Each structure stands twice: as C-alpha cells, then as structure tokens.
Amino acid sequence: MQSAPLRLAAQEPPEFPFTDAEAPRPRPSPLASRRSSLLQSPSASSDKLAALFGKAWAGSDEEIARRHEAEQKAFAENRELLVTSLDESTKLVKSLSVFNQSKWTVHYPHQLGVATVDAPVPHRTLSTPQQTSSSTGRSPREDALRRSMSVRPSTSMQDITEEDAKPAGTLRPEIARAHSTSGVDVNPSKSSVPTPPAHPLSILSIDLKMGHPSTSTAQLPALIPSLSMSTLSQLLSRRLSSSVNHLSSLRTRVLDQSSRVLVTGDLNAGKSTLVNALLRREVMPWDQQPCTTVFCEVVDASANGGREELHAIRDLEKYHRADKQTFDAYPLEQVYDVQEMTGEYHFVKAYVHDNRAPVVADDAEEDGASASFLKNGLVDISLIDAPGLNRDTLSTTALFARQSEIDVIVFVVSAENHFTLSAKEFLWNASREKAFVFIVVNKWGGIRDKARCMRVVGEQIKQLSPATWENRAELVHFVDAAEHVDEVDQPAEVQVDSTEPSAFDHLEQSLRSFVLLKRSQSKLAPAKHYLLNLLADLSTLASANVVAANEELAAALRELERIRPIHERLTAQRDEVEDGVDRVEETVVEKVKGAAWSRLDRALSYIYDGKVVPAQETIAEADARPTFEHADSFEGPAQLPPYPGLFGIWEWAADVKKTLVRALESEVRAAEDDARTETAAGVKAVMTDLGDKYLPEVAGEELTAEQQRQKANRVFRPEVMFAKRRRGVGRLAARGISTGLGLGSAGLGVNWSATDFDVSFFDMFDLERMSSHGAALRGRKQPKMIEDDIVEKGTIVGLGLGSVGMIGSRLIGIRGTMSSLTRIIEVLGSKQARKWAGPVIGVLTVGLVVYVIVDLPRAIPRNIGRKLALALSPVPTDSAAQPVTFASAHSDRISREVRKVLRLAGWDLRERFRAALDKSAAERKEVEGVVARAEGALEFLSEFERSVEKSDEAVQAISL
Ligand SMILES: Nc1nc2c(ncn2[C@@H]2O[C@H](COP(=O)(O)OP(=O)(O)OP(=O)(O)O)[C@@H](O)[C@H]2O)c(=O)[nH]1
Fold this sequence. Notes:
Number of strands: 11
CATH architecture of the domain at 30-59 and 257-517: 3-Layer(aba) Sandwich
CATH topology of the domain at 30-59 and 257-517: Rossmann fold
Bound molecules: guanosine-5'-triphosphate
Largest sheet: 9 strands, mixed
CATH class of the domain at 30-59 and 257-517: Alpha Beta
Strand content: 5-15%
Strand order of the largest sheet: 4-3-5-2-6-1-7-8-9
Oligomer: single chain
Distance between the termini: 9 Å
CATH superfamily of the domain at 30-59 and 257-517: P-loop containing nucleotide triphosphate hydrolases
Number of helices: 29
C-alpha cells in the first residue's frame, strides 16, 4: 500500500539561500490539534489538525480517521514484510558467514569501500588484497565525502527515501550482476579479481579504525592491501556477525511501538534547552559551560508508575526499572548533581511529566496547551539528551546514534558557531545511517545578518546531509529554543493572538509529524535502509566472488591442464625408471666384473709362468685411458730384475717375488681404474641420461635454486671408489714390502697374506717343469684351466725323471725324499744294475746339476710365480664350498663396489623421481581441490545471488 508522502507541510521548501527563516507558514491552531482527541471527537476541527500536524492532516474527521486507519494498516503490512525480509537477510548473512569460514575465503573487494561515485562507473576496479590500494588517489574519506556531495538532487522525500537507501552511484544488484556475468575485464593473466562494476560497500566495508583505535584514518588505504586474504576474511566474518546482531536489533525495533529521539550536537549548542523547550519545562540541566556529561533519556513518568525521578544507571544492559539494584534513584531536581558525577554513571533515565496534557481532551480549549510531546496516545516518545560533541565524545555518540533503537536524530547547532569538525564528522556519518537528520540551528535570535548565516549553514548542511537539505522545509529549523521552555505558562491569549506560528512551533510540528505520523519512516525506514544497503553489499560481494571464483576456476583448470599430463607421464614412467636404473646397474656391474676377472686371470697366468704381466693395450689406448688421481696410483714393473749370477741368487729370488707381486697389484689397480671408468659412465647414464629423460624438472620446468644446488652437489668422484682398500694399502705398506705390498686380506675377498712367504731352497729348482706332467700341463693348459686345475685337484704332482721319482711340488719334503731314496736303493739292489748304475748315476747327476744351474734364471721366477698363483687361489677346505679364486674374488669385490655406487646413483634418481611424482600428485590433488572449491563456490554464489536478488526486490517493494 502506498503511504502518504513524507512531506507533510503544504509549502515548498524555500529555495536556497533562504530569504527568511520566518517565512509565512500556515498558522497552526495550538489548542485544537490534539490528534487522539480529534480521532475520538468527530466535531474537532480539521484546521486544528492541520495547524498542529501539517496539511497532511487537513480534511474532514472521517478523512483523517480513514487516513489514520490506512496509515496503521500500511504500517502493519510493511512491518510484517520487513520482519520477513529481516529474517531472510539474516539467513543469507549467516549462510555467507558459514560459506566464508568453511568453504571459501570470500574475496574482499576492499576498493569498493573507497571508490568514488561521481557518476556510475561501470568498470570500476575491484581488487583483492593482492592488489594495490585505491585507484582514485584520494583517501577513502575524501571519496566518501565526494560521494555524499555528489548525490543527484531528488525532488521529493519519497525519492530521497528510495535514492538514499542505496548510496549514490550504486548499481542495482541485477545491473552489477549483468556486468559481472558478462565477463567484464576478465583477464585470465591477472591474478587479482577482475572488475565487476559494483557499488561501494557500506554496511560490510572494512572498518580498520574500529579494530585498531590507534590507526589514523590516513593510514587506512595504505594498510588494506597489506592485509592477507585470511585477515580480510576474518574482518568480513566479524562484519557479518555484527550485521546479524544488528538485524536482530532492527527486528526488535521494528516490532517495538515506542520511538526514541536522540538530541545531539556541539557543546553548548543548546541541546538541553531544546529538550526542555519540547517538554515546556526545565528538566535537563543547562548552563553557559558544558554541563551534560552523560546521556540522559527523558521518558514520560507514566512508564515509571507516574513517579517523577532520576534513575542513574551504571550498566545499561542490566538496567531494569523495577530492580532497584540496577540503578540509583534521585529526585528530579538533582539532575545537575548527577550530571556532575562524571564517570560515575553510564546513563540516566529521567521519568518526567510533560507540562502539557498527555492526550488531547475532547473539551480542550482552543487556547490551551498543545499535546504532550512524550505521550500522545499513539506512540511513546522519549528524548535523549546527549553530551556535547567533541573529540572525546564523538565516537561514543556516533555509536549511540547508530543504535537501531534511535529513530530520529535531532542535531542541534549553534547559529553563532556553525558546525565544528566533530559536528561535521558526526553529521556525515549519521546521515548515512539514518538518511534524514533533524537539524536545529539554535540561538537564532542573536544573529544579526540572518541571511548570511543561513547561507553559510545551508551550504554546510547541503554537503553533509543532502537528503536532509532536500527536505529542509521540514527538517531544518532556525529557532531560539530558550524562548520556549516556559511557553506553556504564558497566558493563552499570547499564543492565540499570535497570527504567525513561531519557528519553534513549526519545528515541533515537523518533529511530531515525523515521529508520529510517519512511524513507518522513523521506525521502518532505518530497517529498510539498512536492508537495502546490506543486500546491495551482499550482491556486490557475491558478484565479486563469482568473478573471483570464475577466475580461480579458470586458472586452476589451466594449471590442471598443465600438471595432469606431467603427473600421468610420471606415473606411467615409474616402472620405466625402475627398470632403466636396474638395467644400467646390471649391465655395468656385469661388464666390470667380466673385465676385471679376465684382466686378473690373465695376470695370474703370467705370474704362474713367472712373468711380468704385459700391458694389455697399446700405448695410444693407455694414453686415452682416464687416469684417476687416487693416492696409491703407481706404475707396475715393466720387467723382472736382471739376473745377478749365482752368488746373488737369494736376493734376486726375493726381488723377483716382489716384482711379481707388484705386477699383480698393478693389474688389480688397473682393473679398479677400468671399473671407475665404467662406473662413471654408468652414473652418467643413471643421473644424467635417465634423469634428463624422466625427471620433470628438465621437461620444461625451471629448476629452483634448491634443485640447482642439489644438482651441483651431485658430482660423481670416481677416485673415491675403493678408498677402503687404499687405506689398507697405506697402513700395511708401512710394514714393509715383504707383506706383499701389504694388501692384507681385510675386505678384499682373497687372502693376500698368502703372498707373505719366504723364498725357499726349493724355489731354486723347477722340479715341476722337469716332470712330464708339469710339461704337459704347461704346454696344454690355458690360464683359466690351470686355475681350475689347481682348484679341482688341489695339488700338482711332479714326477721326477727316472730314479728321481715323484716329487710333489707341494708335498716335497723329508717324507718325499726318503721315499725316493728307498726306491733308488731297491733298484740298486739287483746285481746287474749295480754294474752300470754307478757311472750312469754319476753322469746323470753331473748333467742334472749343470742343467739346474743353467736353468736357475728361469726356474726361480717360475717357481715363485707358481707358488704365488697357488697361494692366492687356495683350495677350499670344504669341497662343497664355492672356490674363491684370486680373479673371482677381486672381480666380486670390484663389482660390489661398482654396484654400491650405481645403487646410490639409482637411489638418488629414484628418490628424485619419487619426490617429483609425490610433488606432482600433491599439486594435482591441490589444484583439483581448488577446482572443486571454486565450482562449489560458484554453485553457492549463484544460488546466493538469486536469493539476494529476490530479497532485494521484496525490500524495494516495501513502500514506506
Ligand atoms: N540566546 C540563546 N541562548 C541559548 C539558547 N539555547 C540555549 N542557550 C544558552 O546556551 C547555553 C548552553 O545551553 P545548554 O542547553 O546547556 O547547551 P547544551 O548543548 O545542552 O550544552 P552541553 O550539553 O553541556 O554541551 C546556556 O547558557 C543556554 O542558556 C537560545 O535559543 N538562545
């Protein structure tokens, strides 16, 4: 139902500048204007009503009654609609809060709170905390002031109501949504939220100053971008929860029948005097110096059982009129004393009787007093006298004024002083909250150049509260409150005779009208106003977050597109890497093992023959071979020491042995060097070739600094291989060459200490070579076969020539000698033999001796070599045991070391691969999570947007 327009008086607002505040107005009839009485009394004059309440009440009694009934009905309907909308909005805010806390960190478009709105700017940049601050270059406050100053003038109060419910520059949610869903400025390359056009946040804008009282206003824009998403999200959560509280108090207020009027303004502006004037009696303390120190609410004494008294309250939350523990009672006259108890009380309630009657009596005289301001039969009104505004009281009063229970703010300004800074700040904020502010320019009588004063004050009001200015005829009043405090006591004829209503009458009339006749406005408009702003904020947040979610989704999908193939490739290649590493390891180990075995077997066969091992490769090949700078590198002997003759035979034999051992050792080293070369190649194959092929870091990804450092540290140093053996060599070598170069047996897998034998007499003679078996053996067997033979038979039996008999190379000794002699004696036992045996034996003996002496340079190396070879390849005591030969033991040892190194390289690659796989799996999971989250957010937000839009339409449809 369409309610009557708020403009009650028939006259048009005076054009600015005012020419005369006391411009002729319809003369009210002060005594016949008691509304309830008129409703009850059809005979009452409509002129009286018009005089008291303005032209909206003009007309016949029936018309007035009908209008009143219609007002009441509209009010009830609107109230019901508002309560429903408040409940719906509460649900929406709660759902957004849960969404923000558990599903999605709501992006806070902080610039919305500071953007300018000189004209609707469809492409204003929204930004998230990652972005820089305001693009306007102005402070939020400047922007906000500009916004408030640039409101398009509206032509009626109704317009103002509609218009001001949304701050200027506001785009309706559907428009904002149209922009946001049209993909405005969506630039996928940007990480920030792109630009949905939107209105600046009002209810849900960040108020850092509240969180940090020490923060200056100038710091705020600079602070915002430095806040993290989660901090802003928490701030939003707080905002949402305070919004829920506010909605709840609005609900209570909407359902409440009473109205509260806050009278505030500068120090000494005459606030208390105005309250007294409205009561037509001196209740509130007044003085030339500031004397109101605590908020004091004047309530009709009927609310206190008709008893006039002061309730000085320490904790308003706990105050209950019937509970004397919750307040200190004072007589009304002590109001000055109570106000002087600075800091003692938080709030004062003054229960008073209005000097005027509470309701208009049927038989009221026309020249009688007008109806009580506090109690008039319809709505109970209370007046709250606030302490004067200054830096200390500003925030307290602003907070108080924001209370939803405050229906009307009456702002008193002294015509002598105009607006102070505190007054401007308060007024600017208050007009945002309440849209309309009553402004009383007091002490008007003392102003000489009224036109100039009116112009100056008017300009200021125009800037600070445009809505009020637009309705200045009803909302701005130039009065002398002091003159009306005792008015009721004046003789009736003074008022009746007056042909002009006073400015104060007009003020009172407008205030009554505003509070009483437009309860919808005073009680319901703040709720509607708040709801529209809140819903617009919710819509803006939703739109911004739809864009953010879309962008996050797009970015996540792009990222998923990038990392999914990597992850899938890594998963598929896991086995390939395993196989590749194993293959390299097996191939290299087998190769090294075979090569080492061949080299050492060949060396052993030379040693067996008493020869120095010749170099395997050509000089060119030897030069091309990498050399490893390990500590024990030395050149093997090229040949045996020269034979010194019969007299140096013992020393020579020892030198031969040393030379052969050194030659063998040199071959072992050569085999190790070969292994180093192969290992280096194997390590490269694993770490570089396989690494390059399979690790994602080389498949197009930049290496991180840490990866680069790790890669630089992963350098294979072949010379470190076989370090254990080298330490053994070093230690044992100090003990002397007789230890066979001190190779020891520790860890080598072969008993090198077996070479630690002394050259004996029998090493001088190559008895084996003299045996047919030995000759056959030498001529027939290859080194491997010799070794096998040694291993299989465990001994080589040499047969002596003829009577020399069998002499086993390993069993030669006293027993063998005795057995041979026995056989010779047996032969000599026959007579025939005795005849020729002597000469033959003699010849043979001489020949043998000569042969042996001549053969010594060859026999000694052969014997020592054979002895060495046999010592190094011992016969296993357990026939079932695997024989351990010199070559196999060393090739095992060397290949074990190689395997160890390759295992390490393989482990490193596997680890890196596994880490890469894990990382990519984690990344994928995370990105998939982001996708799911963004999709969930979009689902919620689109539903949320629809609900907000629906609620917004419902609230807009409420016509107050
Ligand atoms: N001439 C003139 N003086 C006034 C008028 N209204 C108030 N005064 C004087 O201004 C002084 C301050 O008046 P108060 O009513 O105490 O002012 P206030 O704004 O309530 O003061 P605080 O609340 O203490 O800041 C007193 O001396 C009043 O007599 C007026 O309309 N005209």
